[in-house]
Amino acid sequence: MNHVLAILLLAVDCAARAWRIQLATWAAGGRLSFRDALRLNLYGEAASTLTPNRLGGEPARFLGMTWSGLRVVLALVALGVEVAAEWPVFGAMAVALAAYYVPDWSEAADRFLTHSLARDLLGFELIALVVLLVVWTLQRLVRPGAIRHRVRRQWRVALAHVRRAPWWVLLVGALLTLISLAARALILPALVWGHSDAPPFAMMFFGSLALIHAPLVVPLPSGGGGIEVAFLSGFAGDFGAGHQLTMLLLWRFYTTVLLTVLGVYLLIRTHGAAAAKELFTVGWFRRR
After folding, report:
1. Residue 189 lies in a domain
2. What digits encode the pLDDT tens for the residues 204-257?
3. Which one of 21, 84, 157, 182 is least enclosed by Cβ atoms within 10 Å?
């Protein structure tokens, strides 16, 4: 039953995002089928997971729109309208996370330090050190200015076309974004629904919400191990000895691995390995 709930929530997430880009495309003056919308979002999911700071996501979705028959200008306008509806929700999410974590951060840290054994702390520190070393290395591989360019481009496109979009389109887009974020964050509570020893719901929900979006600020593909370290340390809840790793694997499978595999498969099958390679190397230096 728990796995059925997780799959249903993942389906809600995918459907909400497909409807959102369909609505944005309609507001831009074009038409996009639900199947094409779902497909291009899977392209974006795969490219986001496999590139630093999720840099490949938007190029993959843009190419997916043009491959669906939309003109380049229309696709850019649709993405701009979608971004304009997304960012206010992301801002509200950041405020909600800050309100949840900041007031009692010292108490949470104290609980973690007193709960964990010295051996566990040493293990986490060693893992964190390895992650930091990988971050330091990848920061020298990631193309300079790529992140700043991406943010500037998204805001330019969004601001240029948000004035032309009907207000209700932005409102519905924001609501669909909220549904999408909530559905994916609820996957972790769904996996332990009905268990008497499950962690508090708020800890799982907000912890999952924060970890899912951590790759936006971590310059590593899919968080590069930092998400795993945080989850194992109890950031999204303590699932008990012997279950923490199992819950991590299940949660990552439903929130990341499953859609990434589907996106890679569809991209290679539909457009070939060369197109996939081009998208999955966005943000990296290309050696000549």
Report:
1. yes
2. 999 999 888 887 766 667 766 778 888 888 888 888 777 888 999 999 999 999
3. 182
